[in-house]
Amino acid sequence: MDELANRVVVITGAGGGLGRAMCGAFLAAGARVAALDLEHEGFRELVAAHADNPGFAAWPCDVTDAAACESAVGAVRERYGTLDVLVNNAGITHRSAVRDTDVAVLRRVMEVNFFGAVLITRAALADLEASAGRIVVISSVAGFAPLIARSGYSASKHALHGFFESLRGEEEEHGVTVTMVCPAFIATDIEKNALGRDGGRVSHVYRTVGGRMRPEQVAARIVRAAARRERLCVIGSVGRASWWVRKLAPAFYERQMVRRLRGEMGGDS
Question: Cα–Cα distance between 81 and 103 in angstroms, integer?
């Protein structure tokens, strides 16, 4: 982890369960952390928890707002003079069948998960080129495989792979690397806060494949991947099994997914 000592790490969606865990993990690795998120209870708790840590700073930022992204990156640059690692973590999901889902819900998921990552990355790219830095993208098993009742979420994660794996080639000459992170289900509030078919909160029972990993477990693996500049980091036994089954037997994978997750097609709002 010496590779991360004193590096400046910007983390979006820092106030969520995985974001908070990553802030702690990167700080423990000796990095300086710049936390970005919307103003909400989790973000305020994060700021309070690290208030006495000189290696931690936080700024409110809506990643769907290009001007806000530029302002936040400028604030990080002014404070630290550099930017070494950008972790694109901000994200939301929905839980509803496509046939029942308002297109505005799908647009919102894409706006946060995909365009939010694009906007903050564009704002930070010159700084990352100057430091031969690293971009870490929090994708999902849904970024390389389908996921029923979360088609918009899966689409946003697939889009991240297309964009950032292409960007990797563009930035190779500048020494900027891209790490795609694909965890399976994590025990955070993203599903509890999922959008329903009309944009309201979902009330039907949340279902997963396999158990849910602890955010701290996932964060520790992400920090190692960032330190090693790994290209792809698939986390968890379910994630690794999904990677291979999807490649070798896609029809079987889809049948099993539908069988286990059919209940997520609930019609509540």
Answer: 42
Largest CA distance in the chain: 52
Q: Which residues contact 240 (CB under 8 A, 6 or more apart)?
A: 234
| Other beta carbons within 10 Å of 186 | 23
Q: Is residue 105 a contact partner of residue 39, using CB atoms and an 8 Å limit? A: no
Inter-axis angle of helices 151-171 and 103-110, to 10 degrees? Answer: 30
Beta bridge partners of 34: 10, 57
Catalytic annotation, residues: 153
Among 199, 211, 164, 167, CA closest to 92: 199
The rounded distance, in Å, linking the Cα atoms of 88 and 168 is: 14
Contact present, 60 and 39 (Cβ < 8 Å) = yes
Question: Which tens digit of pLDDT belongs to each residue from 47-84?
Answer: 999 999 999 999 999 999 999 999 999 999 999 999 99
Amino acid in the structure at residue 59: W
Closest CA to 70 of 24, 29, 125: 125
Looking up tokens 């693996």 gives: 221
Of the chain, the end-to-end C-alpha distance in Å amounts to: 45
Tokens of 5: 């000592």
Q: Helices 215-228 & 17-28, crossing angle to 10 degrees?
A: 50
Taking alpha carbons only, the member of 55, 25, 65, 54 closest to residue 181 is 25
Distance CA 96, CA 196 (A): 6
Phi and psi, residue 192, nearest 5°: -65, -35
Instruction: Quick: pLDDT tens for 161-206.
Output: 999 999 999 999 999 999 999 999 898 877 678 888 888 777 655 5
C-alpha closest to that of 85 among 191, 1, 184, 155: 1
